[in-house]
Each structure stands twice: as structure tokens, then as C-alpha cells.
Design brief:
The protein is of the alpha/beta class and 364 residues long. It has helices spanning 21-32, 66-70, 79-84, 119-122, 124-127, 135-157, 167-177, 215-224, 239-245, 258-266, 282-288, 301-304, 320-332, 337-345, 349-360; strands at residues 9-13, 37-40, 56-59, 87-88, 92-97, 105-106, 109-114, 161-164, 182-183, 203-206, 230-233, 250-254, 270-273, 293-295, 310-312. The two termini are 24 Å apart.
């Protein structure tokens, strides 16, 4: 995609230390604006997408610590200082933020693309489960929640424009910051050549193994549905605990490259997502591969799952019985490839790029 040269553009992202949906969005931005510098607090190339290896990266002083790059949650109390000291000289800065990058400083125009206001500040009961995170995270929550919340609120008010990744995030931004944000959905980029349909399993889970992803619910369902094969793609602090509780019909694959990820989508009958997602791109990836999704009625799933592309459980508060019933219903149902494909087209990279460009370079 061509760059519209109305001025200099810089990009920013909290930290590049994982392979999540937010990082995938930023990797896509580099394809849209290849000349833009990318600012981040931490960068660990072995833990995130390879696209960042070719970027013009500018990292904070925190990046000098190998320990912090490998244990980025431990650095949570340090991010406000790191980002407050980050000054970017550009006409426009597009900041991808889940709680930190919006604290940067610039004399240019600041557009914040918000994946979610800081979950550990505003959704601690879901995000900070006992034993799942390091002492730095829990200490910051105990000692610094009020000061960090004030920092977060002040930082949000400095933005010229706030963008939400979903209608659910839009509502949280309004409630948290009193800011009306425009919704621009993330995009899905299927491979040019989709892998052949295969038979790897029946149920596929794509999730970082964190408490709010609720993979334990799906494993509990797998114990009852012993005739089905479950495959779990993703890694995280809960992996050891989840593996110990998983029956023999559950296979853990860890983090995988994109090529294998799409093979997994094409090799399953159903994608299941029980996490609390502000957007959640996996239902769109599944639909692009011709696979329906079972998800909870929450957050971004209200944007990404329709009756033609999957099943939303009737209640936001989900237990194992709901998951088991939902899997059975979804596997019994018929899904039309044309409906799945049509839904994904609403979330194209071209639409995302054009919508963002209008906000980055408004015509007076």
C-alpha cells in the first residue's frame, strides 16, 4: 500500500515481547507505512513476529536488560517512567496501546489505537490471577494502583484522537476516560494460498495461556467429550498447570509459526474461544479458513462472530456445561463457506488502512 506523504509518521507499541493480536496489528502497519520508525519499551525477537526484525526500531533503556525482555510483566511498574521519557519527533504518532504507549510525548499529532485500557488496572479480577504473574505485577497492583491510574488518566487526555478496536473497547474508553473513540477494527490477512483441508483434530484453541483466556474451561469440557480431539496453540504462564489437568485427548502445540497456524485452522472442525477479549481476531482467522467459532457473549466477539459464522453462548458467565453444550451444537450445525468468507471481507487490511489514514491526516 502506498504511503501518503503528508508529513512524517512514527509508530509506537507497548512492548514487542509476544505474538498477540495487538502485535499482529502493528506488524501489519509496518507493511502499510514501511518508512515509519517504531518505538517500543522492550523487544525480544525470539518471542514475537519476524516482521519486526526489518523495522527501524527505537527501544527504551529498559531493553538493555535481558531479564526484562524475557519477563516483560515484571517490568510493569517501570513502563510509565519509560514511556513518559519517550519523546518522538514526528508530525503524527500512531500509538498502539494496551496501557502504556499512550503515555509518550510528542509535539506532533498523537493518535492512540487502543486495544484496551490497562486490563490489570481496570479488570484486575480477570487479568491478575494468583500465581499467574510475577511479583512485580502484584506489587505494582498493591502499591501503585492509584498513582498509576492517575498517570494513565492524564496520559489518555493528551491524545488528539482515540481509536477503539471494537464497540466493546469503545464503551470502556468512554467509561474510563470520558473520551468518545471511533471504532476501526483490526484486520485479518489470510495467506495467499490457503493450506489444503486436513484432519488434525476436532476442536482448536488459539490463545496465550493466561487466566483471562479461560483455557481451563475448554480442558474441563474435553474431559467430558473424550471422543473429540482438542488441539491448543499458544504458550504462557499457565501451561504447566493446564497440561497436568488435561486428558489424553488434548494436545498442546505451544507457539507456532503462521504457516502451521493456518494448517491448524484448516485441520479442525471448530474453533473455540472462551477468553475475555476486547476484540479477538481468531474468529476471523477461523472464518477465513472456513471454520466456525464457539465463543462467549463478551467484548469483541460481538463484532467478530455472527449467527452465520459461529455460536455465541447465551450467557456472559460461562461454566463447563455451557461449553460442552455449545461444542455439541456447533458441531451439529451446518456452516456455509460463502457466509464465512463474506463476513471476513468486512475486516480487510485495505479498509483498516484507509480508515486510519483519514484520522492520521485529516483534510481541513
Amino acid at each position: 500500500m502506498p504511503t501518503r506523504a503528508y508529513g512524517t509518521l512514527a509508530l509506537a507499541h507497548d512492548y514487542l515481547t509476544q505474538r498477540g493480536g495487538a502485535e499482529r496489528v502493528v506488524a501489519g502497519w509496518l507493511g502499510m507505512w514501511p518508512e515509519a520508525s517504531l518505538y517500543t519499551a522492550l523487544y525480544e525477537p525470539s518471542h514475537t513476529f519476524p516482521e519486526f526484525q526489518q523495522a527501524n526500531l527505537v527501544c527504551s533503556p529498559l531493553n538493555r536488560s535481558h531479564f526484562l525482555r524475557s519477563h516483560y510483566r515484571t517490568a510493569l511498574p517501570l513502563y510509565p517512567l519509560a514511556w513518559s521519557r519517550t519523546t518522538i519527533d514526528a508530525d503524527v504518532v500512531l500509538a498502539s496501546s494496551s496501557g502504556w504507549a499512550h503515555g509518550l510525548r510528542t509535539d506532533g499529532r498523537l493518535v492512540v489505537y487502543c486495544h484496551s485500557p490497562a486490563r490489570w488496572l481496570y479488570q484486575p479480577q480477570r487479568y491478575l490471577a494468583t500465581g499467574a504473574f510475577g511479583r512485580g505485577v502484584r506489587l505494582a497492583r498493591f502499591l501503585g494502583q492509584l498513582p498509576l491510574r492517575r498517570w494513565d488518566l492524564r496520559s489518555a487526555q493528551r491524545a488528539d484522537v482515540y481509536v477503539a478496536n471494537s464497540a466493546a473497547t469503545q464503551a470502556i474508553i468512554r467509561q474510563t476516560y470520558g473520551i468518545d473513540a471511533e471504532v476501526i477494527h483490526p484486520f485479518v490477512r489470510p495467506p495467499h494460498v490457503m493450506p489444503e483441508i486436513s484432519d488434525l483434530g476436532d476442536v482448536l484453541v488459539i490463545a496465550r495461556l493466561l487466566p483471562y483466556k479461560n483455557v481451563d474451561l475448554i480442558i474441563a469440557a474435553a474431559q467430558e467429550l473424550s471422543h473429540l480431539r482438542f488441539r491448543i496453540v499458544g504458550d504462557g504462564p499457565q501451561r504447566g498447570t493446564l497440561e497436568k489437568s488435561a486428558p489424553s485427548n488434548v494436545t498442546f502445540l505451544g507457539s507456532v509459526a503462521d504457516e502451521q497456524l493456518w494448517r491448524e485452522y484448516r485441520g479442525t472442525r471448530l474453533h473455540v474461544a472462551m477468553s475475555y477479549e476486547d476484540f479477538g481476531i481468531t474468529p476471523l482467522e477461523a472464518a477465513a479458513a472456513g471454520v466456525p467459532t464457539l465463543a462467549r457473549t463478551f467484548g469483541g466477539y460481538l463484532d467478530t462472530v455472527t449467527p452465520a459464522t459461529g455460536v455465541l453462548l447465551d450467557t456472559e458467565s460461562v461454566d463447563v456445561r455451557h461449553v460442552i453444550h455449545g461444542i455439541k451444537v456447533a458441531l451439529r450445525s451446518s456452516w456455509l463457506p460463502a457466509d464465512l468468507s463474506k463476513h471476513v471481507q468486512r475486516f480487510s487490511a485495505q479498509t483498516h488502512y484507509e480508515s486510519l489514514n483519514k484520522l492520521l491526516w485529516p483534510i481541513n
